[in-house]
Amino acid sequence: MTHGFYVKMDILKLRKFLEDNGHPNFRLKQIQKAIFQDGISSFSQISTLSKDFREKLESEMKILSFEVVNVLEAKDGQSVKALLKIPKCHSERSAAESNPPAGEAGNLDPSASVGMTEYDLIETVLISPKPETWSACISCQVGCQMGCRFCATGSMGFKRDLTAEEITDQILFWVQFLKNKNQKLDTIVYMGMGEPFNNWEKVSESIRILTDQELFGFGSRSLSVSTSGVTEGISKLADEFPQVNLAISLHFADDEKRSHYMPVNKKDNLENLKKALQSYFSKTKRKVFIEYILLENINDSRRDAENLSNYLKSIGNEHLLHVNLIRYNTTSAGLSPSSKARTQAFKEMLAKSHINATIRKSLGEEIKGACGQLAGE
User: Fold this and answer.
1) 371 is annotated as an active-site residue
2) Over 60: is that where the pLDDT of 325 sits?
3) 35 shares its domain with 135
4) Catalytic residue among 89, 118, 123, 165
5) Does 123 participate in catalysis according to the annotation?
């Protein structure tokens, strides 16, 4: 049993389950194809298996490692957000039981604290930037320790890393969801809750699972990893997955401002980030996406545009740098988005300096599933 709740659809556990029940090796490939590529949501749907065996699988294993609490779909149908309940890991439960909330000391009965200490909540988002094209934004941590002042996830604090299975199961869920619409998932971005490079062991494992042609079968170039600027991670991505896309949440081209709003800059400042990107280009020759959230009267002035242009030019390989301008999506941080007019003016200032930029359409704000809004609610 896993987490003391149920046996999950883990490949190694499934292989052992098949062996223990006397099934040939080819059964594993049949089940893998049905789940990872055909998008079945229950073992009972795998018609190549006997009815008795399907019932045995259904009673003793679960395909997903979480429970779906809620699914919200925007009125325009272009974004969907799922709230997922995942069992806490053992260390989390032990800590919660050792330090119970005030007034509950001594109450260590798990059945009395389900929902309070036994589960964590994460969110994942599906967006359709154009008709019949779908991208999944997935989480890699419960909360985040980066503490960016404009991000709702950062205000949660950090609880734990997700396992590789908990990461890839978010994709499995969306594959199943889209199957019901007779559509398929096109791209995946590690841009949900958490900093991917702070959980690189499990994130890298999840990338291998997603690109395994016998499992999900996604191409490396259909995956993107977004970082707040962890330079060590950028180097690892270049070495291990040179064809996976890289996105940098830059947002400020001034060290003082960036350190104030993004604590990561105190360790990995703009100069260190520049060197990491130069090294990345030398290894991969791949385009990098620069994410820039526009905050009213904070980073949207002419001077800010000049600083950004000069900084990107100092990196070199400007033809491999593309800026995505994003009007800030409101959270509880008390900040305001730049106006549409000011956003357009900022883009035009970048264009005059020959910096490629796009104003990215914000999807998911209606369901609090847009960039920076995920908070496990």
Assistant:
1) yes
2) yes
3) no
4) 123
5) yes
